[in-house]
């Protein structure tokens, strides 16, 4: 957690400017690399000066310096609408303040680790400069962490601000009073705070106005008020004779600035501004309507040159924001233009949904005439090829296969017992014949009839599933007779057979997760969804917690991680929040270690998801960049390693500037 010891901090979207270069970066074998950061010598005005009225701050260091990533790292607080201009000049940093200074206000310029020396880029870490336009310095500060609500990963480089105005509307109408920015690990410290009560917010400020006014801006807020205070704790202070020998251990009073453990869970709202993104006709027989956001209803179609309702089949996705319309009759879809009036809910200028009507005239990418032209060209090419074969004495007649309805069977030759066997098509079905479908199970050397269910998957126009009483280590055959399926364009399926076998039970394991205190999550309409995920957070299995337990069967040997979704609306997926309704993103909890499942294991675990703080739950090996993160070697260590390699004859002839 970042320290409050240095005082004020925050925001500067500033331009990093003139960097004065000097000296060579290379170092001969004889001398060590410089690994000492720059030393702050003094400033005008002085550090922690009061009654300041000048618009320029000059900082001086003991060596040539530069500033790295000023826009990301340097923060000026209170925030400035006209960003201060930050420049380097040799051993100096010059900050020109563009906005007028407020009276009786503590200002902080937090450079974080942006100040580095010019040669080796050694950072002067956690450096902040403070001054006041009044007669005293406000010294309170608060610290904490910002996490992504969707995966509990730290959010880097996001603003964290305080408002003394406690109204909810302040976040959307007024700039912050004090601000900070998170570091690479999501930590922040807001410095230079006066006594009082505040609201705390996090904001990925896209337009740098310190106000939440864009739906694309990541955000968070705390419901409880933040009241900065201090606390003195007695802590040990160790004096060393050398790196191995302790001289004295003293117990000294240390001031802590509280709160120091704020946690904000940030999310990006789902866009609510609804409009038609696109209307298109990718082929003669279908057209698509795409909308910016989901809707509870389908648009109303009033055809102008083709029949309503019976003239097409509708294929919506789950959110009704991507809808495919399959035209039935070639008499109508052979037309170059399909004309229609479409009425749908859209966001008006007041931000409310109201009916909107558009007249569409959709032309296919290839018209009927173009397709006929291409077919004629292809026929002539085939005729020429046949004539060439005849001249060579080859009278073989090449029979073109009759077009058939494509049938794709998903699954595989070896199946898991909980696998879904799917049958999918390239176009909607007009009909299918149950008596032309057969499921067999191999008994000894013979296949015998098995009962089954064949049905359309809910919400999927083109996908169906085969259900049976599957048995481990048994072999099955699914047989489809000719013309078992007929599509809406008259094509019929051909005869198809597919065989598959199920794995034995001893190849699997089972896992029971018992949720302690599950009754605390019983909000009306809500569900607890227990998820098994892999290290990359791909959901492998999800089940609803019932009677305080989640049961996972037929698990393959692997290491799984457990995540619990408090599914407040019961729709089975994680949903983001909405600030105007003061609705947060749905909570996620992580079990703090992986679960290793082996073949033929039955395993169970008890877990209280509220026992550990939310920022301590996610296993380290799941955190992005943590598993692969390696300790960086200093440049002196790297050079010594290169010297050892050269001495042993292992150094490459392309070894770089090491004194050859």
Please, could you describe this protein's structure?
The chain has 660 residues and is mostly beta strands. It has five domains: 40-231, Immunoglobulin-like; 276-362; 407-432 and 440-473 and 480-498, no CATH class; 507-622, Immunoglobulins (Immunoglobulin-like), CATH 2.60.40.10; 630-660, no CATH class. The protein is 7% helix and 39% strand. The protein is built from five helices and 44 strands. Strand 24 (338-347) and strand 25 (353-362) form a beta hairpin. The longest helix is centred in the middle third of the chain and has 24 residues, at 368-391. The model is unreliable at 5-28, 627-633 and 649-660 (pLDDT under 50).
Summed up, the helix count is 5
Number of domains: 5
Q: Summarize model confidence as the mean pLDDT.
A: 87
End-to-end gap:
44 Å
Category by helix and strand content: mainly beta
Multimeric state: single chain
Task: Provide the descriptors you would attach to this structure in a database record.
5 domains; mainly beta; five-stranded mixed sheet; extended; disordered C terminus; Immunoglobulin-like
